[in-house]
């Protein structure tokens, strides 16, 4: 038998991210029953290493499901995919030259289905929900997650309910409606939307797929880590700069690096993980600076980067831990700096990034100035979405 037929998920169990207590994966789970903190998926990585090899991986399908052994869906028939992932890792030659760097890279997540990397998390979460018979989904979201959930729910023939602050970007409202989701606009903040979504879940039996409050979205986002390493010829960059809202992506990339070490793809080397937040919404940066393990929620967060407008993150300690263990740092940038960087990335590289993607370039400039990142470092900027999702906020900022 060819090895290919043996390719399957090597999921073994879920594990509390705080206490390590194991729990089963064959029934729907949300937060860890013993701590109320996120659950993380564990795999038999020794078994996975038999088929998930450096030589086998290159010939696989160009989307995130190429890493099937370390993905949580057991029956491939349940995979709901729109071709998400395996996005380009662009060598930013002109921007790098402008900054005096020879090895600047941009992972362009704006080319994903629904225009952001939220597609990865929701492809994984919707697939697992389908596998577990949860066919009615709900979520509070101010941005791209809602559009992605709506798209994947549509592709799977599932019901999607969205609770969204009324001031959310027009693109995010529109795509939910177009994909046939039940869009509920909320007068208030994302926390108010969260309460209403929770109440609806309780009342109608919907499954709430808020990030890190269910275990599978982070499994989709971790594939960014696998791809970066694979696309660098199984090498680890020096620095990864990540625009952080709830921090699922940092937590996922950090998890992927550990898994890849156990798979024998890399050694113990790690990139410095840099957490960037918006000046007016920086709970994780505040906690990092104060040396705290958990973050204090922000009241009335404001930033035009809707993906970073997250006042309280359930996985706060996991993000802060990854930043510290990696020898990275956490810092803020202003909305004005993000918008200027959106234009720079567009003009130097032909990539029109979301303001969140712009934030990574603004952060890089600050870190080059302070000497915390060196011009000879190999740096990966995560452009997490497309500017085309933000026309109503970028238009006025760019004078149109
Ligand atoms: C959601 C989002 C983020 C923040 O992602 P987390 O992994 O939750 O921190 C960043 N950028 C964009 C475009 C987003 O939609």
- Over all CA atoms, what is the radius of gyration? 20 Å
Number of domains: 3
Helical content stands at 25-40%
Q: Determine the strand fraction and express it as a percent band.
A: 15-25%
Sheet of most strands = 6 strands, mixed
Using the alpha-carbon principal axes, give the shape: globular
CATH topology of the largest domain: Rossmann fold
Question: What does this protein structure show overall?
Answer:
- The protein is of the alpha/beta class and 400 residues long.
- The chain folds into three domains: 75 residues, no CATH class; 210 residues, Rossmann fold; 91 residues, 3-Layer(aba) Sandwich (Rossmann fold).
- Helix content is 39%, strand content 16%.
- It has a six-stranded mixed beta sheet, with helices on both faces. A four-stranded parallel beta sheet has the order 8-7-6-9, with helices on both faces.
- Strand 10, helix 9 and strand 11 form a beta-alpha-beta unit.
- The mean pLDDT is 96.
- Pyridoxal-5'-phosphate (PLP) binds next to helix 9.
- The site of pyridoxal-5'-phosphate has 18 residues, from helix 9.
